[in-house]
């Protein structure tokens, strides 16, 4: 579908020409023609990345962080009763790890196919990954605070328990303390991985933005550097 715009005195005419051989409905053809830009989606236009191989390295870091998030999140979910109930209900580390892996795969594709549309998608996904990393940092910080509250004292029965029940509760609290120590360690690693994801996302987005700079600006700066200079004696 081709779109043409004609303007006259006070009148603007928008002409749409549909493709009769296309199987898509006219509305889909209209959206495709509006979203498609040859400058962004041309398959023959490849841009030069500022540092060759950097996007692949950053993508590998994204994937490593995502896999560790998913695996350590499964460990937290296995320690039922030691982790916070928000974690048990939302499965936050698991699907956050899936997001990180997806962003990492996109960064590797950006390294292999540095086209403008791929770079633009990389910027959007890396900024989204950085925003999710900030959310994870806040989440795990509040998770540390919620684990410091011991709800055992709020549910203590009024009558005096028997010595057997007291011994059983002491053993349960001891095992729960060990499980909480494990949860503290895993949460600390997840917090560090979230900080790493924030740094990787910002770095990858900056590199993609540098590659998306107009070519004429690069050509102008190159011509300025190659311009001969004369010294007045």
TrEMBL record:
It is a multi-pass membrane protein. The keyword Transport does not apply. GO terms for cellular component: membrane. Keywords: Membrane, Transmembrane, Transmembrane helix. Transmembrane segments: none annotated. Its main location: membrane. This is Uncharacterized protein. It comes from Periophthalmus magnuspinnatus. The lineage of its organism: Eukaryota, Metazoa, Chordata, Craniata, Vertebrata.
């Amino acid at each position: 579908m081709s779109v043409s715009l004609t303007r006259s005195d006070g009148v603007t005419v928008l002409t749409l020409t549909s493709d009769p051989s296309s199987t898509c409905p006219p509305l889909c053809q209209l959206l495709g023609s509006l979203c498609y830009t040859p400058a962004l989606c041309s398959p023959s236009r490849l841009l030069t990345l500022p540092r060759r191989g950097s996007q692949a390295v950053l993508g590998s870091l994204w994937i490593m962080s995502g896999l560790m998030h998913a695996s350590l999140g499964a460990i937290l979910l296995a320690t039922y009763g030691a982790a916070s109930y928000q974690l048990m209900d939302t499965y936050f580390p698991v699907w956050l790890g899936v997001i990180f892996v997806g962003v990492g795969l996109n960064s590797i594709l950006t390294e292999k196919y540095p086209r403008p549309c791929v770079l633009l998608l990389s910027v959007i996904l890396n900024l989204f990954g950085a925003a999710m990393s900030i959310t994870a940092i806040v989440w795990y910080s509040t998770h540390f605070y919620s684990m410091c509250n011991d709800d055992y004292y709020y549910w203590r029965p009024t009558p005096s328990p028997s010595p057997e029940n007291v011994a059983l509760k002491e053993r349960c609290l001891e095992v729960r303390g060990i499980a909480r120590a494990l949860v503290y360690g895993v949460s600390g690693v997840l917090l560090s991985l979230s900080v790493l994801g924030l740094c990787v996302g910002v770095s990858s987005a900056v590199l993609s933005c540098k590659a998306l700079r107009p070519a004429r600006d690069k050509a102008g700066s190159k011509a300025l550097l190659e311009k001969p200079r004369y010294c007045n004696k």
